[in-house]
Input
Amino acid sequence: MEMPGAGNAILYEWYVGLENVIKMLNPDSGIRCVIFQHDEYDTVDDVVVEYTDGNVQLCYQVKHNIETAENKSLTFGSMLEVSTRQKNPENRKCLFEALFKGWKQACAASGFLIKPILSSNRKVYDHRAGRHYDGKSYSAYPIDQFVSKMQDVIAATGTEEGLAFEDKALEYQWKELCSVLSTVDPNELIAFLKVFQVKGNERNLDEMKRSLIVALCDAFSCEEGVAFDLFSKLLFGLTEWTTTGRKSREVTIEDAYTVLGIGEDVDERQHR
Output
């Protein structure tokens, strides 16, 4: 029997986008636009946040887990497991490879500095797991710690030829990743890891909704009832921003205020 709530994942993805739309309402955020489902990208296309400096895009891949379902964690091992959802075996990739290839394709298509973010409410546990590579046993770091530690090593040495590991377990973990992604140039994988970010243990669907309403309270210095009404208007905006009928894939601050039905120079007294 399938788990009810099949729309949870897409709604969670939209909430991540709305979180950035609300941030964009503050000009100091530096956000120029938010894109829901970028039509030229793959894998890192769920939510794209572009900045006014015209150089950087944050590209979210959002993974949601229904809490009443079997608990899923986000681990180094799970990211190396090849997905069987694709019917064609040639298209099957592990999550790590899919993210890498999505990042590489987005870089080539856009000219932006693409910073991929894996965002999920799945648990990232703070303990190491026993793994095997090349006949040797080692203790693998949690995925977020692995990425962070690899960034430190890369910052110190730079390229595949220059990588120097004082931590033998980290070296085995890196070599296992390269082994699984055997068709990937290690130097390109290093370039990916330099900008890659893992955000696990994120809020669940209800907590995310609550945080968006609180953010609107803060943005407009208004009471919760007014903020809930504004939140409802943003949800209505999604009917245009996330469909094929949208006039533009970019949601700008002007688009957000049009949906909210208020001007950018709003007077607090209108909400009292």
Remarks:
- The first strand starts at residue 31 and ends at 36.
- The two ends are 49 Å apart (CA to CA).
- The first helix runs from residue 8 to 24.
